[in-house]
Amino acid sequence: MTIAHDSFSAHGQHSNPDVPLEYSLEEGALRIFGFWLFLATDLVLFACLFATYVILQDNTAGGPTEMQLFNVPSFTAETLILLTSSFTGGLGTYAMHKGSRRALITWMIITVLLGLSFIGLEVKEFVTYATHGAPLQRSAFLSAFFTLVGTHGAHVSLGILWMLSIIYQLARRGITPITARKVFIVGLYWHFLDIVWVFIFTVVYLNGVMS
Amino acid sequence: MSLHPSRASNTASGSLWMYIVGFILSIVLTLAALWLALARQFSTEVLLTAILILAILQIGVQMFFFMHITESPKPQFNLWILGLGMFFTFVVISGSIWIMSFGGGQGY
Question: Does A202 sit within 8 Å of B52, measured CB to CB?
Answer without folding.
Answer: yes
